[in-house]
Amino acid sequence: MKKIIAKVYLWVLLILLYAPLVFIAVFSFTESRVLGSWTGFSTKLYANLFTGNMQGSSSLLTAVENTLLIALVSAGVAMILGTIAAIGIYNLHGRKRQAVLFVNNIPMINPDVITGVSLFLLFVFLHFSQGYMTVILAHITFGTPYVVLSVLPKLRQMNPNIYEAALDLGATPAQALWKVLIPELRPGMISGFILAFTMSLDDFAVTFFTRGTIGLDTLSTYIYADARKGGLTPELRPLMTLIFIIILVLLVVINLRQARAKNSVTAR
Amino acid sequence: MAENIIIDIEHVSKSFGDTHVLKDINLWIKKGEFVTLLGPSGCGKTTLLRIIGGFVNPDEGRVMLGGKDLVGIPPYQRPLNTVFQRYALFPHLNVYDNIAFGLKLQHVPQDEIDKTVRKMLKLVSLTDYEERDVDSLSGGQQQRVAIARALANRPQVLLLDEPLSALDLKMRKDMQIELKEMHKRLGITFIYVTHDQEEALTLSDTIVVMREGAIQQIGTPTDIYNEPKNSFVASFIGDSNILNGTMICDRKVRFIEHDFECVDEGFGEDNPVDVVIRPEDIYLFTKTEAGQFTGTVKSCTFKGVHYEMFVDTDEGYELQIQDYNAFEPGTHVGMLIKPQDIQVMRKSKVVNEIEGEIVDESHVSMMDGVFECKVPSGFAPGDKVEVRVAFDKVELMDYQEEGVVAGEVKYVLYKGNHYHLGVQTDSGFYLRVDTQDVYDDGDLVGINIAAKNIKILPKNE
Are B99 and B123 in contact (CB under 8 A)? Predict the structure, then answer.
């Protein structure tokens, strides 16, 4: 009896979690403009999405491009800054290290709205014209702490002598960084990049406050505006389905790789 | 002489914060020598090695290599290579790439790199391991790769920082022999850091014994073993009986309440000394009249080749003795020590001399604490004075709060019928204490001194 209840509970939970996604995926294969009415199977929405042939909503594709561009650039910069910061923090000791780590963690706990508003005020104060640049800067600020947190454990695992060993064998500090330190930290840097990337994809509040008035839209701000105009653009349905599938595939690949890496370690 | 010297360390000092890790170190190392820096943890040996390697800059002094000052030259420009404590191999590279790392940086032609790597692998008996992942190797194999990697650059001097400490005993013994052979074959200078006295005795041409940032003795293994300069060296190298004695006159010393002939001269008359007797240098006889003094065997343990016995003399001193024959516990034995086996050493100190300041007529402040005492007339509050406290008049408390000042036991020496301790107070003063109670290294203690045992003298400038 207990077992049955546990199973039912699990399934109810899974259905609640995934029903909206399945719902959208199913209705991405019909032409109806109104979500929820089935007008027969069709791949027209997918075709529209790829040909850009959308009545009055061609800016959807631009929003997708913007989102990806902003996420890639900001995650890339955050990866570099975060790695440098992590190396610095690792070399600090005692109270100083605690203090810097604390400062690093604040942007992560801080509500997005507050981060967004304060960045907005800062940019206004500095007379920055808001647009791509400010959105990217803002995304870098909240992405960097995640990179720091994913690189630090790699540094702690690392034999502290390997940097010195590289110097000892004739590498200049720059060579030691490239040839020894970075390869050692790479897994942490990559997972930090992925985290920063997804945080950026996801973000609404910070983008909303820092995008200015030039009409820059990312996916999240586009959907927000679209929903307020009344009714979502139907092409969003295939787009969401595709994003979900891409992320699902990525997750499976990452998990498989991790499992394989673990296996090869235990096999030794 | 100067031509033969490869490394010359002059007046090197280093502090980290308030702790003086190295105090005015002077040392020169001959070309091709196998030198071991030996000492307990925290004696500064690793810091000294890191200064030679260029990872730490000395506060004062200089390090010369072949007549050239190394200070300020970064590690990657020094013709030295290091074998690190925990191997420090590059985990993302295979064995070949680890060994070739330095050569590739120097843009050595590929065929030459191949040749060198193969030669190095042969040297450390790891032929055909080129393609192996370093994580797949055992500790001993990883250490061999680390040695091969350091040697591939053809350093003039090889620095080894406790390279065998992570290996098990059997592997350590094998590697010791191999290291010794490698040193002989290559003819380059090895500077080796260890806290293992046996390792030092096995491997070295020269041993440098260090303690608390200062060199205690430099000598060959035999010198250091047979003629330790002070009781610390004696206790650190091998087993020994270290006893308080009095030099009566030249060639005559009194300890454990008996007079002995010895071969030492020049210690003056009636001067307190430390006497060191190695356990194998005390001869045991069942016929008590054959010995110079007598005692009763307390315990007897078989140690493989010899028996180790503890014998209480009739006067109440405990001696450690090694003999090829077993003497059952309870046996009354005679004991004999030959004159040349008695090692007499000057005592570095006979009384604690502490800087103090008079507080009032019944208190003196020293070691960051205020002690009650009887201040002789003629001193005014604020006067700087020298305070003397005999070793056996310092009282140690089991809890730090119970003492006027707190300290940590840094060093314990058994002297036959009592323990001689070195206790470092929180203010950094090194207090010597004689006690009957058993303490261990690292014990935290409170320190009290009775008023009547504090002697106050004017400060002699």
Answer: no
Helix H or strand E segment including A222: helix A219-230
CA distances from B129 to A174, A189, A210, B177 (A): 29, 31, 57, 22
Q: Can you name the CATH fold of B5-231?
A: Rossmann fold (3.40.50)
Chain A interface, best mutation among B49, B86, B99, B101, by max A CB count within 10 A: B101
Task: Provide the CATH topology of domain B351-458.
Answer: OB fold (Dihydrolipoamide Acetyltransferase, E2P) (2.40.50)
Residues A161, B88: C-beta atoms closer than 8 Å: yes
**Chain B contacts of A175, Cβ < 8 Å?**
105
* DSSP one-letter code for B340: G
Domains and CATH numbers, chain A: 57-232 (1.10.3720.10)
Look at A169 and B102 and tell me if their CB atoms are within 8 Å: yes
- Tell me if A168 and B136 make a contact (CB, 8 A cut-off): no
CATH 3.40.50.300 in chain B: give the residue spans: 5-231
| Tokens coding A11 | 């399934």
Q: A187 to chain B, minimum CA–CA distance in Å?
A: 11
b/e per residue, B265-274, with b = 16+ CB within 10 A? eebeeebebb
The CATH 2.40.50.140 portion of chain B extends over: 239-346, 351-458
Q: Which residues of A touch B73 (CB under 8 A)?
A: none
From chain A, pick out residues whose CB is under 8 angstroms from the CB of B54.
Answer: 167
Three-state SS for A159?
coil
Complex ipTM value: 0.72
Tokens of A193: 């990049």
Residues of B with Cβ-Cβ distance to A172 under 8 angstroms:
74, 76
Residues of B with CB under 8 A from a CB of A: 53-55, 74-77, 80-82, 84-92, 101-102, 105-106, 135-136, 149-150, 153
Contacts of B89 in chain A (CB under 8 A): 162, 165
Name the minimum distance, in Å, from the CA of B37 to any CA of chain A. 20
> Tens digit of pLDDT per residue, chain B (461 long)?
456 889 999 999 998 877 788 999 999 999 999 999 999 887 889 999 999 999 999 999 999 998 888 888 999 999 999 999 888 999 989 999 999 999 999 999 999 999 999 999 998 888 888 889 988 898 889 999 999 999 999 999 999 999 888 888 888 888 899 899 999 998 899 999 999 888 999 999 999 999 888 999 999 999 998 888 888 888 888 888 989 999 999 999 999 999 999 998 888 888 889 899 999 999 999 988 888 999 999 999 998 889 999 999 999 899 999 999 999 999 999 999 999 999 888 887 788 888 888 988 889 999 888 999 888 888 888 888 999 999 989 999 988 888 899 988 888 888 888 898 888 888 878 888 999 888 888 889 999 999 889 998 888 75
**Tokens 């404590």 identify what position?**
B85
Domain spanning B239-346, CATH architecture: Beta Barrel (2.40)
Which helix (H) or strand (E) element contains residue B372?
A: strand B369-372
